[in-house]
Amino acid sequence: EWSIENNIDVINLSLGGVSPQSQCNEQCACNEDIFHEVICKAVIFYGITIVVAAGNSNADVINFTPANYEEVITVSSLTDYDGLSGSIGIPDINCQINSDEDDTVAGYSNYGILVDIIAPGTCIQTSSLINGQIVLSTGTSFAAPHVSAAAAIIIYKYNIDKNPTLVKEILINTGSMLYKHYNTTTDSTKEPLLSIYNILNS
Protein backbone atom coordinates (compact mmCIF):
# COMPACT_ATOMS: atom_id res chain seq x y z
CA GLU A 1 0.00 0.00 0.00
CA TRP A 2 2.82 2.39 0.85
CA SER A 3 4.41 1.88 -2.56
CA ILE A 4 1.11 2.52 -4.31
CA GLU A 5 0.25 5.57 -2.20
CA ASN A 6 3.72 7.04 -2.78
CA ASN A 7 3.74 6.39 -6.54
CA ILE A 8 6.77 4.11 -6.43
CA ASP A 9 8.00 2.94 -9.85
CA VAL A 10 10.43 0.14 -8.88
CA ILE A 11 10.55 -2.33 -6.01
CA ASN A 12 13.54 -4.56 -5.26
CA LEU A 13 12.86 -7.81 -3.37
CA SER A 14 15.58 -9.97 -1.85
CA LEU A 15 13.56 -12.67 -0.14
CA GLY A 16 12.06 -16.02 -0.93
CA GLY A 17 11.18 -19.55 0.00
CA VAL A 18 10.62 -22.96 -1.50
CA SER A 19 7.17 -23.15 -3.08
CA PRO A 20 5.73 -24.39 -6.38
CA GLN A 21 4.83 -21.84 -9.01
CA SER A 22 1.29 -20.43 -8.82
CA GLN A 23 -0.66 -18.91 -11.69
CA CYS A 24 -2.84 -15.81 -11.65
CA ASN A 25 -5.82 -14.95 -13.82
CA GLU A 26 -6.54 -11.54 -15.35
CA GLN A 27 -8.04 -10.35 -12.06
CA CYS A 28 -4.91 -11.47 -10.17
CA ALA A 29 -6.62 -14.35 -8.40
CA CYS A 30 -3.64 -16.63 -7.77
CA ASN A 31 -4.82 -20.02 -6.46
CA GLU A 32 -5.01 -18.68 -2.89
CA ASP A 33 -1.38 -17.50 -3.02
CA ILE A 34 -1.96 -14.18 -1.25
CA PHE A 35 1.60 -12.91 -1.70
CA HIS A 36 1.44 -13.63 -5.43
CA GLU A 37 -1.87 -11.80 -5.58
CA VAL A 38 -0.29 -8.71 -4.00
CA ILE A 39 2.65 -8.83 -6.41
CA CYS A 40 0.39 -9.38 -9.41
CA LYS A 41 -1.85 -6.43 -8.54
CA ALA A 42 1.13 -4.14 -7.95
CA VAL A 43 2.51 -4.97 -11.41
CA ILE A 44 -0.66 -5.35 -13.48
CA PHE A 45 -2.99 -2.81 -11.88
CA TYR A 46 -0.54 -0.20 -10.58
CA GLY A 47 2.35 -0.52 -13.04
CA ILE A 48 5.11 -1.08 -10.50
CA THR A 49 8.21 -2.82 -11.82
CA ILE A 50 9.23 -5.51 -9.33
CA VAL A 51 12.75 -6.98 -9.41
CA VAL A 52 13.43 -10.20 -7.49
CA ALA A 53 16.62 -12.04 -6.52
CA ALA A 54 16.64 -15.56 -7.96
CA GLY A 55 18.05 -17.17 -4.81
CA ASN A 56 21.28 -18.86 -3.81
CA SER A 57 20.51 -22.60 -3.77
CA ASN A 58 22.10 -23.56 -7.11
CA ALA A 59 18.70 -24.92 -8.14
CA ASP A 60 15.95 -24.29 -10.67
CA VAL A 61 14.15 -21.11 -9.72
CA ILE A 62 10.81 -22.65 -10.68
CA ASN A 63 10.56 -23.96 -7.12
CA PHE A 64 11.28 -20.65 -5.36
CA THR A 65 8.84 -17.81 -4.71
CA PRO A 66 8.54 -14.95 -5.50
CA ALA A 67 11.30 -15.50 -8.08
CA ASN A 68 9.02 -17.90 -9.98
CA TYR A 69 6.21 -15.36 -10.37
CA GLU A 70 5.88 -14.50 -14.05
CA GLU A 71 5.02 -10.86 -13.33
CA VAL A 72 8.41 -10.02 -11.80
CA ILE A 73 11.90 -9.56 -13.23
CA THR A 74 14.00 -12.41 -11.83
CA VAL A 75 17.76 -11.87 -11.52
CA SER A 76 20.51 -14.48 -11.32
CA SER A 77 24.09 -13.77 -10.30
CA LEU A 78 27.27 -13.38 -12.35
CA THR A 79 30.76 -13.77 -10.92
CA ASP A 80 32.73 -10.84 -12.33
CA TYR A 81 35.91 -9.90 -10.51
CA ASP A 82 37.01 -6.91 -12.59
CA GLY A 83 33.91 -5.37 -14.18
CA LEU A 84 35.23 -6.20 -17.64
CA SER A 85 34.61 -8.90 -20.23
CA GLY A 86 37.40 -11.25 -21.21
CA SER A 87 37.39 -13.68 -18.26
CA ILE A 88 40.79 -12.56 -16.97
CA GLY A 89 39.76 -11.01 -13.65
CA ILE A 90 41.01 -12.48 -10.38
CA PRO A 91 39.17 -12.37 -7.04
CA ASP A 92 39.98 -9.86 -4.33
CA ILE A 93 41.97 -11.40 -1.50
CA ASN A 94 38.97 -10.79 0.77
CA CYS A 95 36.49 -12.41 -1.61
CA GLN A 96 35.22 -15.60 0.01
CA ILE A 97 33.74 -16.90 -3.25
CA ASN A 98 36.95 -17.41 -5.20
CA SER A 99 36.39 -20.76 -6.92
CA ASP A 100 34.23 -19.37 -9.74
CA GLU A 101 35.87 -18.35 -12.99
CA ASP A 102 35.60 -14.70 -13.93
CA ASP A 103 32.59 -13.76 -16.11
CA THR A 104 30.61 -16.94 -15.41
CA VAL A 105 27.25 -17.76 -13.84
CA ALA A 106 27.88 -17.88 -10.09
CA GLY A 107 28.02 -21.41 -8.75
CA TYR A 108 25.55 -20.61 -5.95
CA SER A 109 22.97 -18.84 -8.13
CA ASN A 110 19.56 -20.26 -8.89
CA TYR A 111 18.90 -20.65 -12.60
CA GLY A 112 16.32 -21.74 -15.17
CA ILE A 113 13.91 -20.60 -17.82
CA LEU A 114 12.13 -18.25 -15.41
CA VAL A 115 15.26 -16.16 -14.89
CA ASP A 116 15.00 -12.98 -16.96
CA ILE A 117 18.44 -11.41 -16.62
CA ILE A 118 21.81 -11.88 -14.92
CA ALA A 119 23.87 -9.21 -13.13
CA PRO A 120 27.06 -9.09 -11.02
CA GLY A 121 26.46 -10.51 -7.54
CA THR A 122 29.76 -11.96 -6.34
CA CYS A 123 31.96 -9.94 -3.96
CA ILE A 124 30.04 -6.71 -4.39
CA GLN A 125 31.22 -3.73 -2.35
CA THR A 126 28.56 -2.88 0.24
CA SER A 127 28.45 -0.96 3.50
CA SER A 128 28.37 -3.06 6.67
CA LEU A 129 25.38 -2.74 9.00
CA ILE A 130 27.68 -3.19 11.96
CA ASN A 131 30.19 -0.39 11.51
CA GLY A 132 29.47 1.18 8.13
CA GLN A 133 32.73 -0.07 6.64
CA ILE A 134 32.92 -1.30 3.05
CA VAL A 135 32.72 -5.10 2.85
CA LEU A 136 32.45 -7.63 0.03
CA SER A 137 29.03 -9.29 -0.12
CA THR A 138 27.84 -12.13 -2.32
CA GLY A 139 24.48 -13.43 -3.51
CA THR A 140 21.64 -12.78 -5.91
CA SER A 141 20.46 -10.20 -3.36
CA PHE A 142 23.41 -8.10 -4.54
CA ALA A 143 22.72 -8.73 -8.23
CA ALA A 144 19.07 -7.67 -8.16
CA PRO A 145 19.69 -4.05 -7.06
CA HIS A 146 21.81 -3.47 -10.18
CA VAL A 147 18.76 -4.37 -12.25
CA SER A 148 16.42 -2.27 -10.10
CA ALA A 149 18.65 0.75 -10.66
CA ALA A 150 18.74 0.01 -14.39
CA ALA A 151 14.94 -0.21 -14.44
CA ALA A 152 14.76 3.24 -12.84
CA ILE A 153 17.17 4.60 -15.48
CA ILE A 154 15.00 3.13 -18.25
CA ILE A 155 11.83 4.65 -16.80
CA TYR A 156 13.50 8.06 -16.61
CA LYS A 157 15.28 7.91 -19.97
CA TYR A 158 12.29 6.73 -21.99
CA ASN A 159 9.67 8.53 -19.89
CA ILE A 160 7.83 5.25 -19.35
CA ASP A 161 4.61 5.64 -17.39
CA LYS A 162 3.73 2.54 -15.35
CA ASN A 163 4.62 -0.13 -17.92
CA PRO A 164 6.63 -2.96 -16.28
CA THR A 165 6.31 -5.12 -19.39
CA LEU A 166 8.11 -2.52 -21.49
CA VAL A 167 10.77 -2.01 -18.81
CA LYS A 168 11.48 -5.76 -18.76
CA GLU A 169 11.59 -5.86 -22.56
CA ILE A 170 14.18 -3.07 -22.72
CA LEU A 171 16.31 -4.66 -19.99
CA ILE A 172 16.38 -7.96 -21.88
CA ASN A 173 16.83 -6.50 -25.36
CA THR A 174 19.76 -4.29 -24.29
CA GLY A 175 21.48 -7.15 -22.47
CA SER A 176 24.80 -8.64 -23.47
CA MET A 177 25.84 -12.25 -23.97
CA LEU A 178 29.53 -11.63 -23.19
CA TYR A 179 29.88 -14.16 -20.41
CA LYS A 180 30.42 -17.89 -20.09
CA HIS A 181 27.60 -20.34 -19.45
CA TYR A 182 28.94 -23.77 -18.60
CA ASN A 183 26.14 -25.56 -16.77
CA THR A 184 24.10 -26.47 -19.83
CA THR A 185 23.12 -29.87 -18.47
CA THR A 186 20.84 -28.57 -15.74
CA ASP A 187 20.52 -24.96 -16.96
CA SER A 188 19.71 -24.76 -20.65
CA THR A 189 18.91 -21.04 -20.57
CA LYS A 190 21.54 -18.34 -21.03
CA GLU A 191 19.83 -15.15 -19.91
CA PRO A 192 21.09 -11.74 -21.06
CA LEU A 193 23.64 -9.92 -18.92
CA LEU A 194 22.59 -6.48 -17.69
CA SER A 195 24.29 -3.74 -19.70
CA ILE A 196 23.96 -0.20 -18.39
CA TYR A 197 26.17 0.91 -21.29
CA ASN A 198 23.69 -0.43 -23.84
CA ILE A 199 20.76 1.12 -21.98
CA LEU A 200 22.39 4.54 -21.94
CA ASN A 201 23.49 4.36 -25.56
CA SER A 202 20.46 2.73 -27.18
Condensed summary:
The protein has 202 residues and is an alpha/beta fold. Helices cover 24% and strands 17% of the residues.
Structure description:
This protein is an alpha/beta fold and 202 residues long. The protein is 24% helix and 17% strand. It is built from five helices and nine strands; from the N terminus they run αββαβββββββααα. The chain has helices at residues 2-5, 34-44, 140-157, 164-173, 196-201, and strands at residues 10-13, 17-18, 49-53, 64-65, 73-79, 104-105, 117-120, 124-127, 134-137. The strands form three sheets. Strands 1, 3, 5, 6 and 7 form a five-stranded mixed sheet that branches. A two-stranded antiparallel ribbon has the order 2-4. α3 crosses α4. The longest helix is centred in the C-terminal third of the chain and has 18 residues, at 140-157. The termini are far apart. The relative contact order is 0.17.
Low-pLDDT stretches are none
Order of helices and strands: HEEHEEEEEEEHHH
Largest beta sheet, briefly? 5 strands, mixed
What do the pLDDT scores average to?
92
Specify the number of helices.
5
For the terminal residues, how far apart are their CA atoms? 34 Å
Overall geometric form: globular
CA gyration radius, whole angstroms: 17 Å
**DSSP E strands, number:** 9
Estimate what percentage of residues fall within beta strands: 15-25%
Q: Which class best fits the helix and strand makeup?
A: alpha/beta
Helical content class: 10-25%
